[in-house]
Amino acid sequence: MTLDLLLTEGVKVLTEAGIEEATLDARYLLFEVFHTDMTHFLLDRGRVISEDDQVLDQVKQYRLMIEKRSQRIPLQHITGSREFMGLEFYVNEHVLIPRQDTETLVELILKDYKGRKPVILDMCTGSGCIAISLSKIGGFDDVAAVDLSKEALKVAKRNADVLLGPGRITLIESDLFQAIEPKSRFDIIVSNPPYIPTEIIKELQPEVRNFEPMLALDGREDGLFFYRQLVSEGRRFLNPGGSIYFEIGYDQAESVSALLEDAGFAEIRVVKDAAGLDRVVCAVMK
């Protein structure tokens, strides 16, 4: 048995299961299990691997991971991690897997508030990737992160403890603003809320619709339910001149901008992601 043969075996299983990036996923899992990289793989791919207990366990683990991936379980759930903003986040089935699209949201806030010390509220935090990245990279030390899910908050706490240290951000279990202290005021409210219309969810890839939390996906009938709540309730928690930042679906810029305008927000901007799609809407409270 060689690493090359193991990779070929994995690619075949994933291809037959209809995985679009079968080669990439099989290679990633192989590298993960055998603690190697492309350079060392190319050097060692044809070498017969030993059959000691440790290596046999690695082979067994690799095949188990391939089997899970063939069942359309997301790669990140199998490995338990996802890179976001250059940081490694723990993820599981209780949180939305961080996407590169969301980096557009974080990067915009880092740019807009460079050299400043805003008080930040991250609503629908999930894995904590937004709040933690802002605190870690921006040096913002007054960040609160909110989620309705107890299990999601456990994931966010684990990530915060590892990447920031215990107690660096405040984690709050709340149905949107319900448990937020009424006198609290923030300079920034940021959110990547559930924004997929209910009927569209059934059309998503199996990895998303079957394995990612519905609570983090379902934006109700038109996908705008949570934007309406965040806009209408968020005003009273913002300091004068405070800003609100939303990740949006590629076709929601006009609708979300209209909600902000109707609520009296000014300086409304739409920012595109790396693919050129509308991805962020932000505005300032008058």
TrEMBL record:
Biological-process GO terms, alphabetical: methylation
Name of one Pfam family that matches: MTS
Residue span(s) of domain Release factor glutamine methyltransferase N-terminal: 6-80
GO molecular function: peptide chain release factor N(5)-glutamine methyltransferase activity
Residues noted as binding S-adenosyl-L-methionine in the record, renumbered to the chain: D147, N192
Keywords linked to the UniProt accession: Methyltransferase, S-adenosyl-L-methionine, Transferase
Catalytic reaction equation(s): L-glutaminyl-[peptide chain release factor] + S-adenosyl-L-methionine = N(5)-methyl-L-glutaminyl-[peptide chain release factor] + S-adenosyl-L-homocysteine + H(+)
Domain Methyltransferase small, first and last residues per copy: 102-195
EC main group: transferase
Chain positions recorded as substrate binding sites: N192, P193, P194, Y195
Stated role: Methylates the class 1 translation termination release factors RF1/PrfA and RF2/PrfB on the glutamine residue of the universally conserved GGQ motif.
Family membership noted in the UniProt record: Belongs to the protein N5-glutamine methyltransferase family. PrmC subfamily.
PANTHER family with a match to the protein in the record: HEMK METHYLTRANSFERASE (PTHR18895), MTRF1L RELEASE FACTOR GLUTAMINE METHYLTRANSFERASE (PTHR18895:SF74)
Protein name: Release factor glutamine methyltransferase
Taxon lineage: Bacteria, Bacillati, Bacillota, Clostridia, Lachnospirales
